[in-house]
Amino acid sequence: MDSYIDLKDIVTEELKHVDLDRVNVTCSPPDVEPQRQYYFMAKCRQIVKSESERLGRPLYACIQTFGCQMNARDSEKLLGILTQIGYVSTQEESEADFVIYNTCTVRDNANQRVYGRLGFLNSLKRQRPHLKIALCGCMMQEQTVIDKIRKSYRFVDLIFGTHNLFKFAQLLLTMFENRDMIVDIWQETDQIVEELPVNRKYPYKSGINIMFGCNNFCSYCIVPYVRGRERSRDPQEIVQEIRQLVADGVVEVMLLGQNVNSYGKNLDEPITFAQLLSKVEQIDGLKRIRFMTSHPRDLSDELIEVMKNSKKICRHLHLPVQAGSDRILQAMNRRYTKAQYLALVDKIRAAMPDIALTTDIIVGFPGETPEDVEETIDVVRRVQYDNAFTFIYSKRTGTPASVMENQVPEDVVREGFDRLLKEVQDTAKRRAALLQGQVMEALVEEVNEQDASLMTGRLSNNMLVHFPAPATLIGQLVQVSLDTCHGFYYTGHIIS
Ligand code: 5AD
Ligand code: SF4
């Protein structure tokens, strides 16, 4: 046996290459992160290995992700740790030894889905008593949720939140060594632990967190309460992570933050989001840059300029408007008016006529009248969105809007929602049809789900196109002729 490795002697950058089977776990854990977590990974790995030997098969872990791209990225981090520990990933809950739900709480229906599926997990655990169940993510940051799970879902083994995800390995060890439900929720953190393992879903594209949390406090939104105050990552760390990803085959990155336009404002050496983009643009081998989400109030002229001159930033901007009525926008605490939003759109379109614009819209905010919804529809008509995600307002406990009077009756909301949806769909179809016959660059992403002879590619403007091609092209950029528009997507062929 080779000599043992003491993690206290390993520099952070080297941790990912350490053979966990050789780590000395007889000493006490290191005090510093992320060394400390690698120590716990090594310990968990021994446990998984011996259990797997006992059963004569690998142990399977299944992560179910709810919600946004942030959660998707968090799940890749969880899977990175699980893989290091020795679990094999599965999509099938029924064959898993460990099921993790990474939850969302932005609207109540996300919560209800989790409760519904927990019922199913309970029956699964009766058949497979060794099954371990963990819950994490935004929903777990709510005390009412924790109380409910403690009371009615006693079979859950581990609960943690959004601020302490980095200590997943440590929590797993605690879970393995205890039979009681482990609950570890932090209210806040200013810690950003770098260099933990990540298991990416796609070899050729990746999300990158550039900041965590949100300071906007839109009056309907629970995110600032469950994801905490805004914290930006160091630009050097971001660039370094992307360099590593590119070396690993990634050609497209999606920079992730609740409000990327306020990136860097509270760093020791402040930097703007546009400046960060310029740095990322210079990374050799990187082909495409996307980002999500932009708050209209903070979108700077500098950003428009950088986007306009960029060869890599995709021609797509997600610019949530939420509502079109000034009165509702004010009650939502969005801090822009309809006219200001429309002026911003004009400025963006003047600089980049080919840009695709998408948005989020909420219908049924307290006090919203059918006339207010008309204002929203008017914005959709004027902006001509390429796509819009429409949501029915969901009351979130603890937000200012939840205690506002005049919550809108369900039938009125429905009626407004349907009217809006029709406008959104008609507009999106009209916009899509405009590209008919053009040749555009597409990133080949995957084999078409319905027809294995076709590949699915994504255009710079985020639209999908399906075309005959070999799977060997996955991860490559190709020129595709957009032959036939099918509403929201195209079929076409590669131009050689
Ligand atoms: N109800 C409905 N939709 C909401 N969103 C955020 N909070 C709520 C809520 N309470 C929507 C917003 C946001 C998107 C991610 O979710 O449109 O942009
Ligand atoms: Fe994402 Fe917000 Fe849902 Fe959390 S609550 S998963 S941040 S959308």
Distance between the termini: 55 Å
Associated small molecules:
5'-deoxyadenosine, iron/sulfur cluster
Strand order, main sheet: write it out: 2-1-3-4-5-6
Low-confidence stretches: none
Cα-atom radius of gyration: 24 Å
Q: DSSP helix count?
A: 13
Category by helix and strand content: alpha/beta
What fraction, in percent, of the residue positions are helical? 25-40%
Q: Count the strands?
A: 19
Q: Overall pLDDT, averaged?
A: 96
Query: What global shape is seen?
Result: globular
Strand content: 15-25%
The biggest beta sheet is recorded as: 6 strands, parallel
Task: Describe the overall structure.
The chain has 496 residues and is of the alpha/beta class. The chain contains 13 helices and 19 strands. The strands form 5 sheets. Strands 2-1-3-4-5-6 form a 6-stranded parallel β-sheet, sandwiched between helices. The chain has a 5-stranded mixed β-barrel with strand order 15-16-17-19-18. α1 packs across α2 (69-85), α1 (35-55) packs across α5 and α8 (273-281) packs parallel to α9. It is globular. The N and C termini lie far apart (55 Å). 39% of the residues are buried. The structure holds 5'-deoxyadenosine and iron/sulfur cluster.
What's the structural blueprint in terms of helices and strands?
Blueprint (H helix, E strand, L loop, with lengths): L34 H21 L4 E6 L3 H17 L2 E2 L8 E6 L4 H20 L4 E6 L5 H10 L5 E3 L7 H10 L4 E3 L20 E5 L1 E2 L10 H5 L3 E2 L2 H13 L4 E5 L16 H9 L6 E5 L8 H9 L6 E3 L7 H6 L6 H14 L4 E8 L6 H14 L3 E6 L17 H24 L5 E9 L6 E6 L4 E5 L8 E9 L4 E5 L2
Parallel strand pairs: 1-2, 1-3, 3-4, 4-5, 5-6, 7-10, 10-11, 12-13, 13-14, 17-19
Antiparallel strand pairs: 8-9, 15-16, 15-18, 16-17, 18-19
Helix pairs in contact: 1-2, 1-5, 8-9, 12-13
